[in-house]
């Protein structure tokens, strides 16, 4: 095999991993989430901008506030998952660039002085980080249920009233429960997705 990663790890992270729709009530600890973050923070972003922010929804009150903005089909699983993370982009990520890119602190204003540029660059790079986050959840032996079925404007107002953050996706996290997985849909074959030029 051409991959250096152990086949069991390949299965855990990709081949056997699925979007979970039900979860057990086993808690997801702060230590688990910190271990996930401490692994996935090393994924690359342009200029090391690191614009992803993670809001952990733990309390019953916060969960109720979030569920109110979820699409009908996503409400039951969001209401019962042991942990839900709101993944958002920090539109003002550039404020941390002098710290995160110390060799080029001038890029804070030179490249990212305009909000429209930050929104575009930040959303792309935060989406990359969201993918790393999902793989990190799997690496922790947990299942992730990422969703984009929600009222984004409602979630933003409810949780990020200052407009600095914008929700990208909501991810339920935990040990998979009964009938957690739907049948896997087909994927494109290599020859259908990869072109050499």
Question: How is this structure best described in words?
Answer:
By secondary structure, the chain is α+β, with helices and mostly antiparallel strands. It contains 9 helices and 4 strands. The protein has helices at residues 7-15, 30-40, 60-67, 75-80, 97-100, 107-110, 115-139, 152-159, 190-193; strands at residues 52-57, 83-90, 143-147, 165-174. The chain has a 4-stranded antiparallel β-sheet with strand order 1-2-4-3. The longest helix has 25 residues, at 115-139. The protein is globular and about 50 Å long. 30% of the residues are buried. The model has no long low-confidence stretch (mean pLDDT 96).
Mean pLDDT: 96
Instruction: Count every beta strand, where a strand is a DSSP E run of 2 or more residues.
Output: 4
Query: How big a fraction of the residues is strand?
Result: 5-15%
Would you tell me the structural class of the helices and strands? alpha+beta
Q: How helical, in percent, are the residues?
A: 40-55%
Question: What Rg, in angstroms, do the CA atoms define?
Answer: 18 Å
Give the SSE order as H and E letters: HHEHHEHHHEHEH
Low-confidence stretches: none
Please identify the oligomeric state.
Answer: single chain
Write the layout of secondary structure elements.
Layout lengths: L6 H9 L14 H11 L11 E6 L2 H8 L7 H6 L2 E8 L6 H4 L6 H4 L4 H25 L3 E5 L4 H8 L5 E10 L15 H4 L4
Antiparallel strand pairs: 1-2, 2-4, 3-4
């Amino acid at each position: 095999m051409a991959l250096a990663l152990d086949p069991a790890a390949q299965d855990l992270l990709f081949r056997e991993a699925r979007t979970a729709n039900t979860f057990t009530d086993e808690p997801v600890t702060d230590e688990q989430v910190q271990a996930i973050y401490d692994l996935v923070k090393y994924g690359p972003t342009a200029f090391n901008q690191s614009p992803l922010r993670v809001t952990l929804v733990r309390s019953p009150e916060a969960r109720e506030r979030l569920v109110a903005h979820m699409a009908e089909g996503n409400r039951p699983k969001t209401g019962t998952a042991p942990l839900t993370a709101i993944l958002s982009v920090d539109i003002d990520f550039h404020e941390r660039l002098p710290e995160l890119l110390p060799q080029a602190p001038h890029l804070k204003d030179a490249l990212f002085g305009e909000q429209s540029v930050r929104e575009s660059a930040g959303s792309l790079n935060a989406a990359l980080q969201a993918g790393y986050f999902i793989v990190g959840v799997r690496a922790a032996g947990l299942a992730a249920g990422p969703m984009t079925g929600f009222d984004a404007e409602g979630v933003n107002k409810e949780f990020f009233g200052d407009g600095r953050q914008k929700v990208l996706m909501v991810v339920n996290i935990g040990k998979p429960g009964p009938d957690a997985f739907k049948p896997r849909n087909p994927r494109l074959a290599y020859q259908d997705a990869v072109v050499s030029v």
